[in-house]
Structure formats: structure tokens, C-alpha cells
Write a structure and sequence with these properties.
This is Glutathionylspermidine synthase pre-ATP-grasp-like domain-containing protein. It comes from mine drainage metagenome. By secondary structure, this protein is an alpha+beta fold. Among the domains are: about 100 residues, no CATH class; about 90 residues, no CATH class. It is built from 13 helices and 20 strands. It is globular, with a radius of gyration of 23 Å.
Amino acid sequence: MSCTSTTPDLTAHDRALQVEAAIPPGLFRVENEQDRIAWRVASEPFGLSEEQLSQIERIGNDLLRFYKALNTLYTRSVRGTAPAFIAEYLDLGKPEHILRLSRQNRFKNDIPAVIRPDLLITESGFIASELDSVPGGMGFVGAMAHAYCSVGSESVGGRDGMARGFAEIFAAQTGKEHPSVAVVVSEESEDYRAEMRWLAADIARLGIADIAVVRPEQILFTEEALFVREEGGGEHRIDALYRNFELFDLLNVPKQELMLYAARHQRVRMTPPPKAHLEEKLSFALLHHYALQRLWVGELGEELFIRLRSLFPETWILDPRPLPPQAAIVGVTVAGRPVDDFMALAELTKSEREYVVKPSGFSELAWGSRGVKVANDLTREEWVEALRNGLAQFEKTPHILQRFHKPKRVRQSYLDRSSDEIRTFDGRVRLCPYYFVLGDEVRVGGILATIAPADKRLIHGMTDAVMASCALLPAEAALAR
């Protein structure tokens, strides 16, 4: 369906008001319960050039191949046909039951069916600072596309792109034209329940799948299948299960053993698969590891390997173990000198600290901006503490050191609620494309743009950031940007 406004001559101010009114409340967490919408609203989707959109579409297929290669190298490492340190690093901090799950033969080739990177727009192109295979935001982006469609603006993926993409991954996995799916949202992931319900309702409107958003307690197990207990008291069988809970929280999720048993015994299809090694940011460090280059090229081909090395920022695992006297940490220097200990970075001046420290994964601190330390935002004492803390947690919650890339400045307009006027500001952009995996290729269902004020070091949803879906710019507007 194309997007046509019923009131095509709206001013930018009135468009923003209509977009704001069209977004259902409760789809995005707000700090103040009085606030219906906790971000700045733009009158138009964020515009992308045709070249940028083409690159984003290619990145999706590149990331799918990266996941497959990472999965293969992990399996080979466990079996002894690739360096042991690959699995050793990816398994750090995981209890035995998580490792057994990751290595189940039933899930051997399974890859997350929804892939969402954080893409920063820099002067030299896109940088993927994060990669999320259990992402929030799907219903939120879908609702954004509907809201902008109401004023005649078609978002990337179309008005129904998120709903169709989400439904189609389960049709592809189950081989059923109209699959029955349970989206299981844990207590820890409660913030995402409202938006997943919106997405399920939109899919029901399209009539392309039956999606039930449920609590773990509503799952019923039999030897033949899994069922959902409906709020009205009825029951229905499900073909697939979307795991909207984190593996680090697994033991706190009721009935997780029954869900996993059913998935292992092919009573139900589960995505994302319970494979913790696919949810670690330190995989970026493995891609950049000089000793693994031949293996990566063998899995990816040289052209894709080079593209991914440019896409992912240089990353190192904060490993406190001493190096041999003749060794140095590849790519890390202080005053032009190689170093053999990450604590040597404490000597860097504030302007020289172009790094970020963050937890790798399998932790409540490893999603969003929690646990992220931008080095040149810290005092010297805070920087030293960030390094020490990251190194000290190596065996329990490994941390990574990542090269910091500053996004380029853009001018962005928004509706200022206090003055009731359209204003502009200098901002920096993070794009979150949602890729739905359909067999051996991906489809972009939608893209969320977050434009934070240029003086903010981290870009995330905040009260003074614009959040909007993305749209293809007309050629003349793309040239002007």
C-alpha cells in the first residue's frame, strides 16, 4: 500500500503534530509517566540517499554471512579444527548449562532470524558499533512507519514492512503459510511487551500469521507440541516461538526447560536460537585478530572479509593475562610505542583516548548504553578505573576495548513542544535497520534513526533526541545534503 495523506497541504508543524498523535502511547519506555512521547518528533522520516540505502541492504546480507562464519568457526574451535582460543573467548563467563545449549546438535546451523546493527553515519561511511540478535524496537519502528504514512511519507520497508518481515521469518522456518507463533516476553524484558503486542495486532490485521505475546507461564507442554494458554482460558498449538528473553536471565524464566526441550526435539521452531556465542561483541575482536585472517577469508571470501573489517571498528578483548616478553598487543600504541599491557593506555591524554570500553555480552550491562564508557569523556581516574574494572572481570564478564568513531554532524528539524515551533539542531545519527532472515538472504523491514545532539557522546533514545523511521530521499534532496 502506498502512503497518501488525507490532508496533503499540512505545514511541517501540523505534520509533526499529526505524527505525534498517530503514535500509540506506551511503545517506548518513558522516565516520566506523564510523558506520552519521550523524544523529539520530526515532521518527516530521516532521509537516506539511494546509495546509503543500497549499502544498508548489502550490509544485511554481509551480516548474515558473518553470523554463519562465526558460528562455523566456533563449532570448529570446539571440535579442535580451529584455534582453541576462539571458543575459549566466546565461552567466558558462561555456566555449563548455557554452553551445553550452545553446542546442541539440533541448533548447529541455526542463525538469529532478526538482525539489528547499530550503524553510525561517519564522514567515511557506515560503522557498525553494535550487533543485536535479540533486538527491541520492532513494534516501535512499525508504529513509526504507520504514523509517517498517515501524513503521506512512505518509510523504508513500507507501512507494513516490520509486520510482514516478522511474520515471514516464521513462515520460512516452519514451511507454513499461516504459522502460529508465541512471542515469549520475560519479566526482565517487560519493557518490550507493549510494542510486541502492537506488532502482533498489526500482523493480525494483515491476516498473515497468528502471533500471541505471552508470559512464560502461559506456555503449556505436551510430548507432541507446545501450546499457549490464552487469557480467556482457551488453548492453541504453536508452530514457532520467538525468544524475547536474554540467555543471561535464563534460569529466572519460568518453563524455560520445557520450551528448550520442545525446540531440541523439533516440536517447535525457536528464534533466536539459544547460542550465547552469537551474542558477544568480542566477535568483532576475533574478526580483527591477525592470527585468524586466513580462517575468516576461507569462510567469507576476501572481498567480504575486507568489507566487514571496514564496517566493524577495531576491537580488542581486555585480557589481563601477561604476554611473552617479545610480544605486543597488535594495533595498540602509546606515544607511538607498542604496548604489552592494556593498563599502559592509562598514560594517554584525554584527547588521545579514542576508545570505548563495554561489556561483551551475557550480562544485564551489555545492552543499550549500560556499562559503556567513552574514554575521552572520563577523568583520568575514571579512565584508569574503567580499564581496571574491564580487566578484572575478564573471566566472569569479559569486556572489550573498541576504537571510537565520531558520527558526522547533520542538521535535523523537530517540533519543540515548549514553543510549539519547528526548530533545528546539530546532531549525530545512529541507524538501526531491522533485517529479517528469509533463507539465504535478508529483507529490510524498517530502519530507526536516532539523532542525538552533537555534544552527546553516546547516541540512544533520550528526551532531546529525534527518533524517526527512515525514507528514501528524492534525488535532488540527496544531492543537496
